[in-house]
Amino acid sequence: MPEARLKSQVIIQSTIRRASMRGVAATVVRRGDPDAGAIYVILNRGREVGCTVLAPTRDYDRDLTWWRAATGEDPVSEADAEAYLERERRVDPDLWVLEIEDRDGWNPFEEEA
What we know:
- A hairpin with a 6-residue loop joins strand 2 and strand 3.
- This protein has a five-stranded mixed sheet with strand order 1-5-2-3-4.
- It is built from two helices and five strands; from the N terminus they run H-E-E-E-E-H-E.
- It is of the alpha+beta class.
- Helices cover 26% and strands 29% of the residues.
């Protein structure tokens, strides 16, 4: 039997708290379903570098989630990141969008909990 998963809102709150402890700005851009909404993350490295949108990818056979660069390996403009997320929102209106503003591109989901 798979382990119980944390609610989306709890994951968002925890991530914002961890960002705050690092001195990194984290903002909820869009609220989704508090229990099971998919979470997308905009890693915003500033106007000069650009953004990367991280999307969750789930392996149900092994009960694992990992994060992929949905907008590709190279950063994109904020407008391109927002356009990508708007397309995703049309498919899944319950999704969350969390923006992390950090020039170093800190990804909160690559760290050990």
